[in-house]
Amino acid sequence: MTITTPAAGSRILFIDSYDSFTYNLAALCRKSIPGCSVHILKNDNLSIGELCPYLDHFSALVVGPGPGSPDKDSDVGLVRDIWRLADDHLLPVFGVCLGLQSFAMEFGAKLHRLNVVKHGQVSTIHHNGMDIFAGVGDVAAVRYHSLHVSVDGCDDIEALAWADDGEENGKVVMAAKHRSKPFWAVQYHPESVRTERGGEGVLRNFWQLAMAWTRKQRRAVRPWNAAAERLMGSPWPSPQPPRMLLPGLSTTVTARTVEAHGITPTDVCERLGVCNDSMDFVLLDSAAQPGRFSIVGCLTKSSTKITHYVGDDHVNLCESGTMRSETLGASTIWDWLADFMRSRRAEGGVRDVPFWGGLIGFLSYELGTETLTPCTPHGVEDASGRNPDVNLVFIERSIVIDTVSGKVYIQTLLPNDEAWLQETSALVKDCPSRPESRRTSPAKRRKKSASTSPPVVALPDREQYISRIREAKEYLFSGDSYELCLTAPTHISVPKAVRGAPEHSSSWELYKVLRTRNPAPHSAYIRLHPSTLLSSSPERFLSYSRPPQSTCQLRPIKGTVRKAPGITRAVAEEALAGSVKEVAENLMIVDLIRHDLHGVVGEDVEVKQFCKVEEYKTVWQLVSVVEGKLPSGEHGPREMDLGWEVLRRSLPPGSMTGAPKKRSVEILRTLEDHPRGIYSGVFGYWDVGGGGDWSVTIRSCFKHDSSATSAHSVASTDSSTRAASATEQWTLGAGGAITALSDPEAEWEEMIVKVESVIRAFGEVEFS
To answer: Rounded to 5, what percent of the chain is helix, strand, coil?
Structure first.
């Protein structure tokens, strides 16, 4: 029987090498060693000289995983010095992955590359049931490594476990210990969601061994004090004080419900004037199952529009055609937006309606990378000619269509707005009564007004893209990343069908064709000048429910099979859930997302669904579901910002970068020649009641209206102020997750298939 040594009050120091699974391992420590406190320190924050005087405040130390190689100082930082601690500073250490490699090399092991890389794959771990594996039983563990160590001839190191890779790699060391010092380490990832019986039990055994060594050495652990707190900071998860909520400022939502079976979002939008291209317009459209609610923003001239560019020290606001700027000062754009929404909170709307009013728009990929690892976008010195990185509008009037119940909700945040509610209710009731014969199909409309010159498509350079895939794979083999989502832009030059006609919007017609040919649960038409975004995204990124008891949910998609004759559910499940490559890609993102959620909410994170094949309108997809929420004692004002903080900490989407995220983003900057902009960022809403829903910007295209003389005009109807350009320049991004198992030619073909799913909306095209 295992005797548990009390851990209450014990402190563990966690050395983080900028990994994307760190908080998962910290949560495992807390679960395995109940009552302990975990302090997380980056491997380059302190020198060993600065750290040593404070080591006796800790009962043990964990050296976490990370990208790179153990023989590079820039990758391991002070980790190498941990194994060289003098006896008077010595304490028990547990290493994981890079931690094991660094430990073993310090005592004479040789570093090698695996012949066949193991990223996100599960292996049987063979052990003798002793030491850290005492009483653990059979272990199946997830591996994320391309490097490994050989301990043959190392007198100071004893191997404790291994994986037998057969002809691929032979026997690979999976765990080891020092024969005299209190050092233990594993090569696999005990914190992964798919590791079975090699996580909690192994950490618990390490703690028992560590405490036994501590008693034998008579090592005393000093009480925590103010000096240690100043240097090391608060333990994880550290409670965050809520921002101040001003009393008495909550707005009341006024709503009317209309029964309107058969109504479509496109009907409503056209009745509201979406065809006037000079007006801003927003539609979040559930164009296919499992989507349910479609949201139409009813903008006014006074609607507040917010734009911001990465690198700027200010935010731009436009109301009633008047532009002004506010300096961010010491705040970030994220803090500014949180303050903006906090002063506009509302209550009293229909509970089951997800959106009562609030911010709608998009956030760019570069906004996410700026938070993660700041860098000026490729070759961009100013904002001219590029889309804003933040482009949002505050919606006070909205129409929400429930495609399941047939109910339509007309809502306003404005006081004394009864006249608009009645007028809009009548408009909605009239929409379904329009005879079907009066509805011209999008394809026919485009054909009728189409220019004689077809759109011209400029695809990425095939040889260059394949060359970049090979470069990406070299980073995977060297241990710098487990997966890299490599992308490239395709450009489409479209002759304007009708010039000088504000009642006609070629972008709206284009969206309707895209919606028809590639229906998706997270479709969108977002026209916030100077940007227009058309989306048929299949992937929800993050949703968060309203307080109280707010829950954050992420739904990563990795693995897609297009529907076709003979592609049954059984065939799709074999191709997706039965594929080592597809499951490994999904697993890596699931583990990364768990880390992102743990970093905000603490320990309460759960994988609700792992690699389930879901049926969509045109595809079968491999989908996982991860949820997190605050501890019960922290519900309250902090929940108003919870989802927004998760969004900030989770961008850019891991499914669009790879893992570890920080290093992967840095590598992708060297492999991609252009900023991604709107592509692979997110679009969606933040509701005034505290909820939100954001989707990944994929299967989408966008343009920048460089001819606009007033890019921030909300409802200008003066078409003469816009120079008539001969063509519209559309951009769409596409790519794929590059793994060690990727075939460059196949990855190119997959990317082209994704591009074609959007290009089809442009009709007959020419390739340049």
So the answer is: 30, 30, 40
